[in-house]
């Protein structure tokens, strides 16, 4: 996804609004496969201030993945933010603020594909869960506990205290 900065750089305007979509399809991270079910929407602006040129954008995407508890496939919609300072590639910059993202542009265009993918990866939860109330699978028989209880007798005994159970038998 490219944004033309020519009007901003020659000071014709001080702000450029954009609303674009990008087709990414599938993203694989550390053996975790995400299927993006719709195009990623990027809506935001590039603006000039006395301190420099900045980018601010909302990224909205939907992905399909298997639940970490019950293993059923589900779709989740996420909205995240991409913001940072624009710098020309040829200029060196002494980064004073470690928390500020620097986005480099070349000529009159800035390419945002890598930054959008990075923002998506950073916004993903460690483990995707279909619902906060998901009960998962039985550790003994594998039945989906969201569909009902199983008949397994599960004794949750702390292994450190297992020997004390023998005193009562």
Order of helices and strands: EHEEEEEEEEHH
Number of helical runs?
3
**Structural class category:** mainly beta
Number of DSSP strands? 9
Helix share of residues? Answer: 10-25%
Q: What fraction of residues sit in β-strands? A: 35-45%
Which stretches are low in confidence, meaning pLDDT under 50 for 5 or more residues running?
Answer: none
CA distance, first residue to last residue: 69 Å
Radius of gyration: 24 Å
The average pLDDT is: 85
**Globular, elongated, flat, extended or rod-shaped: what is the shape?**
elongated
For the largest beta-sheet, the strand count, sense and barrel status come to: 7 strands, mixed
Please, could you describe this protein's structure?
By secondary structure, the chain is mostly beta strands. Helices cover 13% and strands 39% of the residues. The strands form 2 sheets. Strands 2, 3, 4, 5, 6, 7 and 8 form a 7-stranded mixed sheet that branches. Strands 1-9 form a two-stranded antiparallel sheet. A hairpin with a 2-residue loop joins strand 3 (26-29) and strand 4 (32-36). The model has no long low-confidence stretch (mean pLDDT 85).
Helices and strands in order:
Layout: E1 2-4, H1 6-9, E2 15-22, E3 26-29, E4 32-36, E5 40-48, E6 53-66, E7 73-88, E8 102-105, E9 109-111, H2 113-123, H3 162-168
Parallel strand pairs: 7-8
Antiparallel strand pairs: 1-9, 2-5, 3-4, 4-6, 5-6, 6-7
Short note summarizing the structure:
The chain is mostly beta strands and 169 residues long. It has 3 helices and 9 strands, in the order E-H-E-E-E-E-E-E-E-E-H-H.
């Amino acid at each position: 996804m490219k944004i033309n900065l020519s009007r901003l750089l020659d000071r014709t305007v001080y702000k450029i609004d954009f609303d674009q979509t990008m087709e990414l399809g599938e993203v694989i991270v550390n053996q975790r496969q995400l299927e993006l079910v719709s195009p990623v929407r990027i809506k935001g602006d590039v603006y000039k201030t006395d301190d420099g040129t900045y980018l601010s954008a909302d990224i909205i995407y939907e992905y399909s993945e298997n639940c970490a508890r019950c293993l059923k496939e589900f779709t989740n919609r996420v909205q995240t933010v991409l913001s940072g300072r624009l710098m020309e590639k040829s200029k060196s910059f002494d980064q004073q603020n470690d928390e500020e993202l620097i986005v480099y542009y070349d000529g009159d265009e800035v390419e945002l594909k890598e930054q959008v993918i990075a923002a998506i990866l950073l916004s993903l939860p460690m483990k995707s869960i279909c619902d906060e109330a998901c009960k998962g699978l039985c550790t003994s028989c594998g039945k989906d506990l969201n569909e009902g209880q199983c008949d397994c007798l599960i004794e949750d005994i702390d292994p450190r205290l297992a020997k004390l159970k023998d005193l009562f038998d």
